[in-house]
Amino acid sequence: xxxxxxxxxSPSPPQDLSAVVDVEQAxxxxxxxxxxxxxxxxxxxPPSLGRNRRVLTAHALxxxxxxxxxxxxxxxxxxxxxxxEGRNGDPGYAYVRLRVVRTALDAGLPLRRKAWPxxxxxxxxLPQVWGLRLFPRSGGAxxxxxxxxxxxxxxxxxxxxVLRGLERLPDxxxxxxxxxxxxxxxxAALAQADGVAAAYDLLRSPEFDPCSLQARPTDLMRxxxxxxxxxxxxxxxxxxxxxxxxxxxxxxxxGAAAPAYAQNPAGQAALDPGQLTKVAAGAWKHSARADFSAxxxxxxxxxxxxxxxxALAVWARPGESVQVSATPGTAAGAPPGPAQLLxxxxxxxxxxxxxxxxxxxxxxxxxxxxxxxAALDFARVDGATAAEAGAVVVNRVDGxxxxxxxxxxxxxxxxxxxxxxxxxxxxxxxxxxxxxxxASPAQARACTSWNALQLRxxxxxxxxxxxxxxxxxAHLTAGRPQAPREATAANWSSAACSLTDARSNGVRSVxxxxxxxxxxxxxxGPAVWLCTRADTWRGDGGRALAQFQAAGAAAVAAKAEDxxxxxxxxxxxxxxxxxxxxxxxxxLLGGGSKDVVSVRASGGSQTPGNTVAAPLRRGARAGLTGRxxxxxxxxxxx
Length: 638
Hints:
alpha+beta, ten-stranded mixed beta sheet, 30 strands, 12 helices, five-stranded mixed beta sheet, globular
């Protein structure tokens, strides 16, 4: 029987947390556990607020959870209650958690005519994000069903369910927290929460994580009206300021700079279709570089100056009706000078232009029957190699994707990473190198298949890439981070679904590494440890994910974001899980990379080698530390 949890620490017996909490103690707890407290607030807030306001309100309530007293030595008293999952004995965390629950419940109360609204019932003043709607990443069907069931509960019942599942509090402690938060009948709230199935693991999914967000524009028509009014007011202010400032020292602060609207030769050349660079068809064969700069200009509309002029003009100054998107870390500004034309032609129901300025790939698309609804997409590609410059997205329609392939690509196929035994399906291309459409995993909600693009270059080497919702597919590799090799479907069959965490993050490449193997206790068979690392074009924001796999089941053991772990700069990795054998016994399992020479479990002795399997008593604290050959320590991935 396999039962895996990514939490290394297990709850200890309840302790008396009746204590005096000062500001410093509460602030330390809030900073340390901020993502968990925001998730708690988001789940307790009523779904009727809408996802954008729930996100902003959750952050606002959590940031206002500190005690009112701010002078050193001032303190507040909290009632006795237990703090779950490794936060036992921390009255600061118990205090801020209580404040978060109380204000989140207040936010769900109806407004009354004869009473002033509470602060939490009003839209938050801070934080605010203008021009964008923010909401967590979408989960699967299970998360959606759970969200619908929670929305049918009352506020106290929803809080009871979340305290049980997210905080892992027993019912007695849940009653104390609800009573301290002002709930009149905690027992009734618990009884109502019993009506929802205990799918507590789903509460930790990205669907309910208000710290990992997606952005979309607000009402563009209303925003345009507001911007026009603001522009008129700003123009009037500038005119008045100019009249008042001219008798003095002139414009001053910009020194010798030209006026803001002075004509710039490089800027004018960037808007001239005649100045676009068009590489000859066979130039890539003799080029010293195998990147986007060697791509020829292709497509039936490369000489359509009207289309190219529109594309360049929209790039320089996109209008309000243009849908603009950019991968994280990618500048969305005007071209610095004449760009290189990669493609201009009709694809499906759109006219598409793809440009390259040495740093970015820019895709302009407009409908065949007009320019309304044009789209402009940016993706950073500086330093691309032949492996990363093999294809660019030309169009997406109804969950399908088409690519424009590099001139050195001899054959294209599609391979399902979840079915490595199945042969690849050949993909047809037209004379310009545009592929036929195929199903993309970029927007799929369920991981029942994962299509990857297989590109064979002129030397016969195969490379795998996958669509993560961006213009350039992510290059897939496998093996040790210091020397990754080209991936195969077999390398990724057990890790493909982990790619959902890397979507829309500006990912350049993703490496899958089986870093340890382990024989399970009580002859329960073998287990393997995998580390999947996604590196970005911008350098920071890399994500590492450790997985434990045994008996055909897999679980995420640990995650790290914006970390060098499991990469070329810091290849050492260590992760642990709690595991239950078929005999019903619990163990703390740990797996480290080959450079880990010994592992120590909490309360145990040092175990030689890079794996450990230590018996785990009920309620015992669980933790792992490893030691490298040079004597330095390595902690678990987090």
